[in-house]
Specification:
The complex is a heterodimer of chains A (516) and B (327). With 516 residues, chain A is of the alpha+beta class. Chain A is 38% helix and 23% strand. Chain A folds into 2 domains: 1-232, Transferase(Phosphotransferase) domain 1 (Transferase(Phosphotransferase), domain 1, Orthogonal Bundle), CATH 1.10.510.10; 236-511, Phosphatase 2c, domain 1, CATH 3.60.40.10. In chain A, strand 8 and strand 9 form a beta hairpin. The longest helix of chain A is centred in the middle third of the chain and has 25 residues, at 286-310. The two termini of chain A are 54 Å apart. Among the domains of chain B are: 47-157, Tumour Suppressor Smad4 (Sandwich); 176-212 and 222-299, Tumour Suppressor Smad4. Chain B has helices spanning 25-29, 92-96, 162-174, 235-238; strands at 49-54, 60-66, 70-74, 85-86, 103-107, 113-117, 124-126, 129-131, 138-140, 145-148, 151-157, 180-185, 188-195, 202-205, 227-229, 244-251, 254-259, 266-268, 271-273, 277-278, 284-287, 290-295. In chain B, the strands form 4 sheets. In chain B, strands 2-1-11-10-7-8 form a 6-stranded antiparallel sheet, with no helix packed on it. Chain B has a 6-stranded antiparallel sheet with strand order 13-12-22-21-18-19, covered by helices on one side. In chain B, strand 10 (145-148) and strand 11 form a beta hairpin. The longest helix of chain B has 13 residues, at 162-174. Chain B is globular and about 60 Å long. Mean pLDDT of chain B is 85; it is low at 1-18. Classes of the chains: A alpha+beta (516), B mainly beta (327). Chains A and B meet through helix 10, helix 12 and helix 13 of A and helix 1, helix 2 and helix 4 of B.
């Protein structure tokens, strides 16, 4: 360290003759912590705060002299705890911060140290990232061999104050008053302590005595997790679809099929919104195309239901794209089986574009020239790449003749066939440039992260073939919050142009309702 | 299904990219597939050479080992004959410019590798220089760049002589009691085989659900007793294998093959067949793109050393071959 005294930013409140903590500005303009106190206390700090520690704990880096110790601040933007900023933090951010803080305290306990009382003045708050840090530990002491009721309580009693202030938005009345409040249901109602899982958490932290008191940080984590679950607002899905035979003279039936399944479950307080949506455009003879697309939609929906029944929800939530691909594979095999054993009615094939929405993520499987779109921030983004001869020509830099060009848009390079099962490598997912376009690098691994206000659209070529991308964009913008009107508009457009193909559109509008 | 115990390493994916799905496909299907992992296990022989697929920046992205001294390579198309080496890790536009078959690679007794272009409508280049279709075979050396259509491969021969290869092959074929049917991959029997019993016909196919499992499937045939389930083959090999593909029958002191599927083709020595056909020792059976070698006790038969590449049909004139007075 240089001899020049480092400029101090702030000194945290402390008691007379107790160790002090202050934030200083380092030579690289980065703030760091300096704790000053007796040598034996500093020895304990060095052990308890040795790196690598929890991200909510500072880590010891340097000893400038015998009575002080420098520690690295995990978050440079953290400010001394400010009750006003804390009260205005959104509930779910605050609970996440408390969960992280609990894990930090738990780490100290596991290392054999106790804070012997944590106060709001010992904390730093980074309101922008929603994190709470421990910035002072003036009473740090070894964990007694047989901890009594109060040992853990001293470190976690501050959670009652923090939770109370954040949820109710006014000053904490003090532990004694809160205990009285908690024992009277009418008082709870009058104060407004009615949030589910909140009174239970307060009761666990407020006093070290009684059956409800938390004896271990694990119990506090349990209480906070319940509170977090109650705060989770799943995405709401509004779905509409429309499919028509069309009005072209020689189009005798509707070879398009589409289907969706929406499952809402609340099990163990966990709300799961999982949905499967697909469109299929049959090809082949008049009856064969319709039979193939129908079989594909029915088999895919059945496979989705079996996955929902058998697979752990965690797998579906974490790998929606893998589920969508698995559904496409099973569907493809289903068609091949019927093609071989019941060949009379099953000779065609079908395109297949399927979307799995699980929680906040979406997965896609895609074969053929139907399309999936995303309307986000007023931009219409195609999620899938058409498997057509025209696209192959484009990649080959081949300029097709006019006749070739016409046919190449209609010729599809991949489809689910009743003749041959499709291999895994030829079932496509999201376009390759999508992670950059949507600024989500883990898109291929975890699926597309959905946001409030997203609109997903699935169309067959009879619908998007009659519309330029620009027209579809403006239709989607016009009807962005009315999926039924959007599907009608897309299909009616094809009808008004007397399009030659069947047209199908499906729209899924996602919204997150504000907390009640 | 039996196979020699020489190879115990875990199955390798040629592309080696995609991780396995967390979803059990059997659960999603509602019926289970009997996938024998041995069918996807690595080749029992040592590779004679390797083709490394290069991307646009000349970085190797996939490799295709070659196990036979004379192979056809390209893509499978059911109207043409099966190929030994399926180049499957390609993108759609690359496959579009790949012939079926595209080229013939051969290791001569002198130790030289030669290549012959077979695809009339799509180019083959050796180190950037075009090779005429069906012209004289050209020598390929280590490090040569072979361009098939629009995909470039780096050729790497391995340090193994034809005699060594033959000894390995003999050992593998002698490890079973003939008659037996060996699975072939990349030009040579790869290890897995199924013994043949003259008293019981053997049906080749893939797992399918019992009648009544799926809607309107009451009339579906039940699974034959003596059945070689090929579901365990890698995706690219099994996709052209029908659920009931063909039956091997011993009749009048000779083995016959009877095609059962109208959708997927059966080939004998790369010629498609439609009726029960008598088999010779050492014949090569093709079930879609999967090839098999028939090992019979009568002679010390070996896989055919030379394949006569089929005469390519050039459709570019827009004229069917029947109208061509030359043919």
């Amino acid at each position: 360290m240089s001899a020049r005294p480092a400029p101090s930013i702030v000194t945290l409140p402390s008691e007379p003759d107790a160790p002090t903590a202050s934030i200083l500005r380092g030579s690289d303009e980065q703030p760091y912590l300096r704790w000053t106190g007796p040598a034996e206390w500093l020895d304990g700090v060095r052990e308890a705060f040795a790196p690598p520690g929890h991200p909510c704990l500072p880590s010891a880096i340097d000893t400038p002299d015998e009575t002080s110790l420098d520690l690295k601040l995990p978050s440079p933007n953290a400010q001394p705890f400010d009750a006003w900023a804390w009260r205005n933090l959104p509930d779910h951010t605050a609970v996440d911060a408390l969960l992280n803080l609990t894990r930090a305290i738990q780490q100290l306990h596991h290392r054999g140290w106790t804070l012997r009382g944590l106060r709001t003045g010992d904390l730093l708050l980074d309101a922008s990232r929603g994190t709470l840090l421990i910035a002072a530990a003036p009473r740090l002491a070894p964990m007694p061999r047989t901890p009594d009721n109060e040992t853990v309580w001293r470190d976690i009693r501050v959670f009652a104050e923090l939770t109370y202030e954040n949820f109710l938005g006014h000053e904490y009345p003090g532990g004694h008053h809160l205990v009285t409040l908690l024992q009277d249901r009418n008082a709870l109602r009058d104060v407004g302590l009615t949030h589910p899982a909140l009174p239970q958490l307060l009761a666990g932290c407020v006093t070290p005595y009684g059956d409800l008191a938390y004896r271990h940080t694990d119990e506090l984590i349990g209480g906070l997790t319940h509170l977090r679950t109650e705060l989770t607002r799943p995405l709401q899905l509004e779905v509409a679809s429309r499919s028509t035979q069309g009005n072209y003279l020689f189009r005798q039936n509707n070879q398009d099929s589409c289907g969706h399944i929406l499952l809402d479950t609340v099990c163990d307080s966990q709300t799961h919104r999982i949905g499967f949506f697909c469109v299929a455009d049959g090809i082949g003879g008049i009856q064969d195309g319709a039979a193939a697309s129908t079989a594909a939609v029915r088999a895919a929906c059945a496979a989705f239901m079996r996955a929902w029944e058998h697979a752990p929800p965690r797998d579906i939530l974490h790998a929606p794209t893998e589920l969508a691909r698995a559904i496409a594979r099973v569907t493809s095999q289903h068609l091949a089986l019927y093609g071989e054993f019941s060949p009379d009615q099953n000779r065609g094939g079908t395109t297949f574009t399927g979307l799995v929405i699980a929680g906040d993520h979406a997965g896609l499987c895609h074969v053929g020239d139907s399309r999936a779109w995303l309307l986000r921030d007023q931009h219409l983004i195609p999620l899938s790449e058409d498997h057509t001869l025209a696209n192959i020509f484009k990649k080959l830099d081949h300029a097709p003749s006019p006749a070739e060009r016409d046919a190449s848009h209609r010729t599809i390079a991949r489809f689910l066939s009743t003749g041959t099962e499709l291999d895994d490598a030829r079932i496509d997912t999201f376009r390759n440039d999508l992670p950059d376009l949507l600024n989500q690098p883990d898109l291929h691994a975890h699926g597309l992260r959905l946001r409030d206000g997203d609109l997903l659209i699935l169309t067959t070529d009879g619908a998007h073939g009659e519309l330029s991308d620009k027209d579809l964009h403006s239709l989607a913008l016009t009807h962005y919050d009315a999926p039924h009107a959007l599907c009608d508009a897309i299909v009616n457009n094809a009808l008004s142009r007397v399009g030659k193909d069947n047209s199908t559109a499906m729209a899924i509008r996602l919204s997150r309702r504000p907390p009640a | 299904m039996t196979r020699p115990k020489s190879n115990t390493s875990p199955p390798l994916n040629v592309a080696g990219k995609r991780t396995s799905s967390p979803f059990d496909l059997d659960l999603l299907r509602g019926w289970s597939e009997d996938r024998d992992p041995a069918l996807a296990s690595p080749h029992a022989l040592s590779a004679l050479a390797t083709l490394h697929q290069l991307d646009a920046n000349h970085t190797p992205i996939a490799s295709y080992p070659i196990f036979g001294p004379a192979i056809l390579l390209g893509r499978f198309h059911s109207q043409h004959s099966p190929v030994d080496l399926l180049l499957d890790n390609l993108q759609d536009h690359q496959t579009y410019r790949l012939g079926s078959p595209h080229a013939h690679l051969e290791l001569l007794p002198t130790g030289q590798w030669v290549v012959q272009a077979l695809a009339p409508q799509t180019p083959t280049r050796l180190n950037g220089e075009p090779i005429d279709t069906l012209a004289m075979a050209r020598e390929v050396r280590a490090g040569d760049r072979l361009t098939l259509g629009v995909t470039t491969f780096d050729f790497e021969p391995h340090d193994i002589t034809l005699d060594d290869h033959q000894r390995q092959l003999d050992r593998l074929l002698d490890s079973c009691d003939p008659p037996a049917l060996f699975l072939m991959r990349s030009g040579a029997p790869s290890g897995p085989y199924h013994p043949l019993d003259p008293r019981r016909p053997l049906t080749l196919g893939r797992s399918y659900p019992p009648a009544g499992t799926l809607p309107n499937s009451q009339h579906w045939p039940s699974r034959p007793d003596h059945f070689w389930d090929l579901s365990g083959l890698p995706d690219v090999e099994r996709k052209f294998v029908a659920f009931q593909h063909a039956r091997l029958i011993f009749k009048d002191q000779r083995w016959h093959i009877e095609p059962l599927s109208t959708r997927q083709r059966t080939y004998v020595n790369r010629i498609p067949i439609n009726v029960p056909t008598v088999l010779e020792p050492g014949d090569e059976l093709g079930l879609g793109s999967a090839l098999f070698h028939l090992q019979l006790p009568t002679t010390r038969a070996r896989p055919r050393r030379n394949i006569t590449p089929p005469r390519p049909i050039d459709w570019s004139e827009g004229r069917p071959p029947a109208e061509d007075p030359e043919r």
